[in-house]
Here is the input.
Amino acid sequence: MRDLDGILAIRGLPAGYRDSVEALLDVNARHLARNERLVRYYEGDVQPAPIGVDALPDCVTVEAHCDWPRKAVTSVSERSRLDGFVFEGDATDDVLSRVVSENQLVGAYNRHVHSELIHGCMFATVGRWDGRCVIRFHTAEDSAAIWDDSAGRIGAGLVVADTARTDWSPRQPVPVQVNMHLPGLVVVFKRTGVSTWTYEELPTPMDRPAMESFAYRPTGLKPFGFSRIDKTVMSITDSVIRTLQNMEVSSALYASPQKALLGLSDEAFDMLMENKLQAYLTKMLLVTKDEDGDAPSLTQLSAASPQPYIDLIRAYAMLFSGATGVPLNSLGIVQDNPSSAQAIESSREDICIAAEDLNESNGTSLRNVALMAMAVEGNCGIEDLTDVQRSVVAKFADPSMPSVVSQADAAVKIASVAPWVAESDVFLEMLGFDEGQRRRLASARAMAGTNQLLAAFAQPLTQEA
Here is the structure.
């Protein structure tokens, strides 16, 4: 978080609030350089540091990029797709359905989950704005949090809630609202000038901060998880970029091998030096004998083949695949023999396991977000929600991403053993119907049932007549 000058100098700000803001800003500042570096690797905007053996002269500039860190992130994020929320007993909750729809929660999660994998964590806040519940996701770049070990959740958090262009910053948007989330309270800081702020206290009906963390593979020592772009990924990426740079120079030398003319006369030497490019490009080079009657000899120096560099990149790809679980074919490495369907499925197993771990931890966080949203809408504590509301669970798509044909075939086989499954919405999901199609089918099924009921009532009347 940048451009927050003066936020600690608010007149009348309680010492407890000032200490919390200072601690949260310190957390963000300690991780700011690392987070920016991770983003650069994700965007492919890095150049490796020299290793002390520089094969490229200063006059040669070769810019190479490697998008493998992006692959390490998207290979998992693309398999973590939120479908929505479900309740026990196939119940529904109109309040949560409205909140999810108004905040476009499903799409917002699917758009932000890659940020969690880049930084290791992201955050979601729940609040009220203009009389409705508002849920927003925040990256680790514009937020910070302190973990509460005893409660097993965030103890305090700070997020940039709004940015805008102002009179003192007409070109670059700057933070104009920052929210600090504490148990049962949100402290809203609003900017009034370059370094002047005001604050407002807004109580919440919950005994916890209205802020939830999403962490990739968190541990007890690192509750905010780990980044998919770890030191191994960054090191291999640097090595690949160096190899690409050296290969570019080697390929240029391979395309234009050096030649040597021995035994030239002084006049012929001067002529060739004045017309080096023309002498190199000409199809025929004519040189007379020297004063002693000796003919000059022409030799060509063999250039190094780029094949060793290709083999080296393949070796780095294997190391990268082993460290991240990304299949080799996703890194652009084509195998000599086509892989079987079983081999392809096996190569994706590590990625599917990583996506399942992500869905498990994020499912818990999404459940807490849903509980807080229903509590904010009902202006009550989470403990005051109904049993049905507290049974809410986040539902994700299958990380293995099976084809519609194989999934439908499995659904039919399951229904043949348990016929009652065919009467549920789960059966329609397995057949590949989306939510809109399932609603239309449910309406059609209800109408068909009504028509059958009317026909059953009308049949005795027809017989009596």
